Amino acid sequence: MKHCSFNYVRTCRQRHALSAEELASLINQRSAAAVSQFESGDRVPTLEGALALQVVFGLAPRELFPDFFASIEDAVMRRAANLYEQLEGLTDRSSQAKRTLVEEMPSRSTSNGSTV
Question: What is the pLDDT of residues 55-76, one digit of tens each?
């Protein structure tokens, strides 16, 4: 099952003339097979792996895995819209804080279509 249809891991690795084995070693993976799975989209790295890739290439996980990031962002924004609806009519301090957070989320979103 493909986790993401496109990512920049292979592009970055090749740009810097790293072998899959060398990259695997740098990001603390046991074998080049893990790197190959990241590059093909068959697997996404753990948080540790994603952050290690950021250290190596200087690109945030959202930049290395834009399609995967977009799918996560869309799902979170849909759940935020649901939470916002649940908060409708509630005026307590906690509800107001949650509503403010949810209202600010679209400004941090990378996609223009996200609305709450």
Answer: 999 999 999 999 999 999 999 9
